[in-house]
Amino acid sequence: MDTTNNSNNALVNFVKKHSVLTVIVLLLIILIPWCISKYNGLVTLNENCNEQWSKVETQYQRRMDLIPNLVETVKGYATHEQETLTKVIQARNKAVETPATESSTVEYQQAQTNLTSALRDLNFVVERYPELKANENFKELQSQLEGTENRISVERGRYAEVVKDYNKKIKAFPTNIVAKLFGFSAKEYYASEKGAEKAPEVKF
Fold first, then answer.
1. Which domain holds residue 166?
2. Using an 8 Å Cβ cutoff, are 102 and 187 in contact?
3. How far apart, in whole angstroms, are the C-alpha atoms of residue 132 and residue 77?
4. What Å distances lie between residue 197 and 15, 41, 150, 153, 156, CA to CA?
5. What is the pTM of this model?
6. More reliable by pLDDT, 2 or 150
7. Per-residue pLDDT tens digits for 144-164
8. Which secondary-structure segment (H or E) carries 14?
């Protein structure tokens, strides 16, 4: 009798043990592909953010490349405006020196904002020199700068959109589990300046 009971118990334990193993195997078969899919999706969104940020950075770099020539042209006509010209160059140099990385987003934004402000001050200077505004080299630089400012505005808007998609994804359940597991964190939006719903006004 005891032998029979022991056999029955052993059979029950065997079935239970293998049932648990079967469930675990089935869960792994389901969860592993799901995790891979979610991870790859997050990688794609993250790369979209990085790609779009590089486009923003490219346009800012183009603006910074135009400024030295612009300042030299203005200097030829506005010899008494050294203080304003110096501020533009200092703001431009600060923007060049500030790295455009995720860890320095706020500093980078501030450097670019200060540069925009310095360019606006230069705008007031230019208004006092009609001969400068008529200069062909200046008009060409002005046109390039205006076009660059518009492209900056467009690329910043696109960056905000891809960051929004990425941040929503990593915060939504159940993808947030995979995001936390693999270290995906929210990205900073490129905040607009107050009153800057449109491209900054730098028209001379």
1. 2-181
2. yes
3. 6
4. 67, 31, 12, 9, 11
5. 0.76
6. 150
7. 999 999 999 999 999 999 999
8. helix 2-75
Q: What is the number of other CB atoms lying within 10 angstroms of the CB of residue 129?
A: 17
Query: Position 91: which residue type?
Result: A
Contacts of residue 196, defined as CB under 8 A and 6 or more positions apart, other chains included, come to none
Which pLDDT value is given to residue 109? 86
Which pLDDT value is given to residue 22?
A: 73
Residue 107 tokens, joined: 């500093």
CATH code for the domain in which residue 31 is found: 1.20.1440.20
Q: Give the amino acid at 99.
A: P
State the DSSP code for 198.
Answer: S
81: in domain: yes
Categorize the per-residue pLDDT at 15 as very low, low, confident or very high, splitting at 50, 70 and 90: low
CA angle 48, 104, 191 (to 5 degrees): 65
